[in-house]
Design brief:
Blueprint: H1 27-30, E1 32-33, E2 48-53, H2 68-76, E3 88-94, H3 100-116, E4 120-124, H4 130-141, E5 145-150, H5 168-174, E6 180-188, H6 195-203, E7 207-210, H7 211-216, H8 221-226, E8 230-234, H9 256-268, E9 274-278, H10 289-306, E10 320-325, E11 334-339, E12 345-348, H11 356-359, E13 364-367, H12 369-376, H13 382-391
């Protein structure tokens, strides 16, 4: 597919200039940049591709977020490249279509083609409803997916609400054919969320993690994002002191350092194939601090990708230690796998399954050492029970 038809070149002269620090090998110097019409970068050998999406018509109380991509680029281009062999390109911007659905079509076509080529798209929004367009890309690939959204809300909306950036999840859930295997919210803030919505998420067997729990044990975010195919990051999940460039920013949320850590975990995951950053509003940014933070988050994501270990478990792999735990009242043992290369843990749900082809990618559930320790105390881990029910 000729994805260049959907992408406008970047006018480098229009990108705001950031503070320039001394040094060589900046991202802007090392990347392939689509900056001239008719000079689209070659995709061969690429590992990462940035693309801006200039769409905000479904934003909620955040007008001007469609202008974000070039401001993020301004900060990102000034950072330094540290990974020999990691080929990165900036493919330009997808302009807003005649309708929002036209924009979605362009996004899902570009994202799908990049994933087919084993290139990881980094989507720079725009409003977070673009997550739906990223999800649609996997429909064309025929692949069941897990979505992790870093967001203070669930973005479910109400049944009578119109579709927007705070109700897109309902459209994903109801969309047919449905390719969503699991959805996880990371960092919701309870005072912003209806109690009935929390119950609904649990009844749907989705994962939801309160901001306080994750901040207290930030390392527990690692197995959560390791299970994602798509990571969607709403910048309003970061507290206003660290990311003021958002009309919905609040006093609480992740710190900038915690946000960088979460996206680095995502980069380290061999499973994740698409990531998006949404809802940044340059008009509200103070000294472009938020643009700088998002640029650094992208940098940490790249650092994670550059350090991937190719340790996805499989039925015939010898790179994993196996632990069988017998829990009272359970007919079957709970099987854990530990990577000998990275010391990361998984729960193995592959044994005795007759649906192996359809759900093969979801038979190995990322977990932490705490889940194993819990099983050793004769307690069934929540992760095991939740995904066992999904596979029934």
């Amino acid at each position: 597919m000729e994805i260049n038809l959907f992408l406008d070149p970047i006018d480098l002269a229009s990108i705001p200039v950031s503070i320039v620090r001394p040094g060589q090998q900046r991202m802007g110097e090392k990347m392939r940049i689509h900056s001239e019409k008719g000079q689209f970068p070659a995709l061969e050998g690429l590992k990462i591709a940035l693309l801006g999406v200039l769409e905000e018509r479904y934003a909620v109380n955040n007008t001007a977020c469609s202008t974000a991509p070039n401001h993020i680029r301004s900060a990102f281009y000034q950072l330094f490249h540290h990974w020999p062999g990691l080929e990165i390109a900036d493919l330009g911007n997808i302009r807003a279509g005649h309708s929002v659905d036209d924009t979605y079509f362009a996004v899902n076509q570009v994202v799908a083609e990049l994933i087919r080529r084993s290139i990881i798209p980094i989507v720079l929004g725009g409003s977070q409803d673009l997550t739906f367009a990223m999800y649609q890309a996997y429909e064309s690939l025929g692949q069941l997916v897990n979505i992790v959204s870093v967001d203070p809300l669930f973005d479910l909306g109400q049944e009578e609400d119109e579709f927007n950036a705070q109700s897109y999840l309902s459209r994903i859930i109801l969309h047919q054919p449905n390719y969503l295997f699991n959805y996880t919210n990371l960092g919701y803030q309870t005072y912003y969320v209806d109690a009935l919505a929390v119950d609904l998420m649990k009844n749907l067997l989705f994962d939801v993690y309160r901001i306080g729990m994750i901040k207290s044990h930030i390392e527990e975010a690692e197995p959560v994002v390791r299970n994602a195919d798509i990571l969607s990051f709403d910048i309003s999940a970061v507290r206003a002191a660290d990311a003021p460039g958002n009309a919905n920013a609040g006093p609480n949320g992740f710190t900038g350092e915690e946000a960088c850590r979460v996206v680095r975990y995502a980069g380290l995951s061999d499973k994740l194939t698409c990531i998006g950053f949404f809802e940044y509003n340059p008009l509200l940014d103070q000294n472009y601090v938020t643009a700088g933070l998002i640029a650094q988050m992208i940098w940490y994501f790249l650092d994670g990708v550059a350090n991937r270990s190719n340790d996805l478990p499989g039925s015939d792999s010898n790179d994993f230690a196996r632990y069988n735990v017998r829990i009272e009242g359970q007919d079957d043992e709970v099987v854990f796998l530990r990577s000998k290369k990275t010391d990361r843990w998984w729960i193995d749900l592959s044994f005795g399954r007759t649906d192996r082809k359809k759900y093969e990618r979801h038979h190995f559930v990322p977990c932490s050492r705490l889940d194993y320790d819990q099983a050793m105390q004769d307690e069934l881990p929540d992760r095991w029970w939740q995904f066992f029910q999904k596979l029934m």
